[in-house]
Amino acid sequence: MRPVDPAADARLLHGWVTHPKAVFWLMQDCDLAAVEKESARIAADPFHDAFLGLHNGTPAFLMERYDPAHRELVGIHTAEPGDVGMHFLTAPTTTPVHGFTLAVLTTVMEMLFADPATRRVVVEPDARNTAVHALNEAVGFEVLRTVSLPAKDACLSTCTREKFLATRGDHR
């Protein structure tokens, strides 16, 4: 994974976030300038960053990491020390690979937990996004409750390092 370059990656990301499969990303109506502006806003934010994930050298997914004490869930979730918020999106493809999205999510979780300060990952996927709920459960997320956010009702979910490692057969 590498940091998103707002100017250089805007066209690629625009194609991803406006694709029909990215409906839950909530950027369907954004033009190229809006995607670049949002990427630049994230890049300048000390509590939010974005990474482009490569597969065999080709951009294949987007991951955003944020501090839930300062972004997304302020006033909704009481962040604990070591909480890290996350969003991810796989690139649209005409040749899907079975298990790829789970592999992406696993890679994202490994990156987040590679930081010893990360104790728990927090997500807030759209309550209607049943596909991501199944993926989240597969890597150890537990739904805490449904919350109302400005643009969606979401399943506030968390995954501890221990729960994630247990899904991988590692019971440290």
TrEMBL record:
GO molecular function: N-acyltransferase activity
Keyword annotations of the record: Transferase
Matches recorded under InterPro entries: Acyl_CoA_acyltransferase (IPR016181), Acyltransferase_MbtK/IucB-like (IPR019432)
Gene Ontology terms: biological process: siderophore biosynthetic process
Pfam families linked: Acetyltransf_8
Pathway stated in the Swiss-Prot or TrEMBL entry: Siderophore biosynthesis; mycobactin biosynthesis
Domain called Acyltransferase MbtK/IucB-like conserved: residue spans: 2-49
Function field: Acyltransferase required for the direct transfer of medium- to long-chain fatty acyl moieties from a carrier protein (MbtL) on to the epsilon-amino group of lysine residue in the mycobactin core.
Name of this protein: Lysine N-acyltransferase MbtK
Originating organism: Streptomyces sioyaensis
